[in-house]
UniProtKB/TrEMBL annotation:
Annotated catalytic residues: 124 (proton acceptor)
GO MF term list: histone deacetylase activity, NAD-dependent; metal ion binding; NAD+ binding
Designated name of the protein: protein acetyllysine N-acetyltransferase
This protein's UniProt keywords: Metal-binding, NAD, Transferase, Zinc
């Protein structure tokens, strides 16, 4: 699929004019780095496992069958050696230029920070950091990846859990409000790599009122009609064309 040059030029002009851009991204931002998404053609939700896909990301499984939880995490989530792609790098560049004020991400891979971004709000946490569920000692992800079975704290023998939000856990209300505040103050919101079908994605984007809204996603979203610029393509490909 060839990129729409007219829309790219419209996006380029809008970015040049903007002084307070906020970016809201989902799994599609990282698929070009080789990470699987959830609902896409080859997404995790399309695979067949012994349990429903959601179960493998649940607090319940971690509590009642931690060995199965970590077996899946090591195989499907934690074991990817990936690097930032064009989308991550362009956003970091805009931040250095003072144009981008915040990245709000649903991803847990830490690729925005690896690309050089500092102003990142991680709604669902970061897989590269862990903590003991009992004494709360901090660990790196190597504490999970370089062990077998259930990773245990060196101090209290509690289970070491990745710093990610699982099914059954609530999102940090303070992070949600911080994200909403950034969107309200932005003079342009770019949404990329997300279908906007789950909360809080839709509710946060609704905070963008009377300001340019750009949506870049391969598939349809329920807010396409509200977008000033809508590009159906991969976000890394679009950003490379700027």
């Amino acid at each position: 699929m060839e990129i729409n040059e007219e829309k790219i030029e419209s996006l380029r002009k809008a970015v040049d004019k903007a002084e307070n851009i906020v970016f809201f991204g989902g799994a599609g931002v990282s698929t070009e780095s080789g990470l699987p998404d959830f609902r896409g053609e080859k997404g995790l939700y399309r695979q067949k496992y012994g349990l429903p896909p959601e179960s493998y990301f649940s607090l319940r499984l971690l509590k009642y069958d931690p060995e199965e939880f970590f077996k899946f995490q090591r195989k499907r989530i934690l074991g990817y050696d990936v690097k930032p792609n064009a989308a991550h790098l362009k956003l970091a560049e805009w931040e250095k230029q003072g144009k981008l004020r915040a990245i709000i991400t649903q991803n847990i891979d830490g690729l925005h920070q690896e690309a050089g971004s500092k102003k990142v709000i991680e709604l669902h946490g970061n897989i590269k950091h862990c903590h003991c569920m009992v004494c709360h000692k901090s660990y790196k992800i190597s504490a999970v990846m370089e062990t077998e079975g259930i990773p245990r704290c060196k101090i209290c023998r509690g289970i070491i859990k990745p710093d990610t939000v699982l099914y059954g856990e609530k999102l940090d209300v303070r992070l949600l409000e911080k994200a909403a505040d950034h969107i309200r103050k932005a003079d342009m919101l770019i949404v990329g790599g997300t279908s906007l079908t789950v909360t809080p994605a839709v509710s946060l984007v609704h905070e963008c009122k009377d300001k340019p809204l750009v949506i870049i996603n391969l598939g349809l979203t329920p807010l396409d009609g509200r977008a000033n610029i809508r590009i159906y393509d991969k976000i890394g490909k679009v950003f490379s064309a700027l």
